Model the fold of this input.
Amino acid sequence: MRNVLVAALASLIVSLLGTPFAIRLFRARGYGQLIRDDGPTSHQTKRGTPTMGGTVIIFATLVGYLIAHMVFFRGVTASGLLVLGLMTGLGLVGFLDDFIKIRKQRSLGLTATAKFGGQALVAIAFGILATRFSNDRHLSPVSTHLSFVRDYGLDFGVVLFVVWAYIMIAATSNGVNLTDGLDGLATGASTMVLGAYVVIAFWKFGNSCAVVTSENCYNVRDPLDIAIIAAAAMGACFGFLWWNASPARIFMGDTGSLALGGLLAGIAMTTRTELLLIVLGGLFVVETISVILQVAAFRGFRRRLFNMAPVHHHFELAGWNENTVIVRFWIIAGLAVAFGLGVFYAEFLSQGSR
Done:
């Protein structure tokens, strides 16, 4: 447990103290946020706010992870390196997207083809590599079985699992990206989900089939290392949120939102909780569905279901204050996380009662 706490504390300090440095650096270089002309008019005041703050979250997470291992002389694991690689790879895709927006002074960066292509390249590489590196218990970082709280009967096989991994990673990274439209909204929601995964991964470590023989033990390759990563990312998000909360002095940009989304998907796959992520990340699901419904309604019936999508903009245009929208959506995110943790623990109890 101490290495989990050290990872969280180290990343929190790096993020909390490093973000002001990033704000000054990005402002000096003119790396300011561009605002959509068709968005809420109140957002025009945010034009020029430094962006690409996700670089701080990624850096702080990596530093927190490394410090936790150095302090306790603990070796890194295949699962941990793959999840961190997934986060960093998608962060790089987001960084290119943000940089092009700034360089060309437009609200759109990479083309849709290039952006999805970059996500696909990183996701497929993760999916292929994560099915390898089996340990002495014949456990690889991920399982090709579909999972909810643990693996179940449906086995995709390696090829279909890689496709499934791409779908999960693309959906989650874009879901966080869509949620990142208000000051601190995506950062706060991501912090809650990461906190849940600290609990889940550490619980699976304490109840691993490698150390206990009960019927409700978990077959996960490196649960403690995943808990350390989740804790480091949670600390990084907490530190960044200090500066990203309304009124934000810096935005995470696609650099941060794609990285965090990929991180959550990677953690879900390596902890064998793929479908549970849909519950824990309920806010991201709502935001994504609102965009899908808006596009489908407009293309099919030439009508809009919402004033604007994603749905947080709908409530802004309906007259809600931005802070009101943020806090209420944080409540939704918190309720989804609490419900997901309840489902996780209820399944554990039900397995033990058999």
In short: DSSP finds twelve helices and two strands in the chain. Residues 2-281 form one domain. The chain has a mean pLDDT of 91. Residues 322-352 form the longest helix (31 residues).
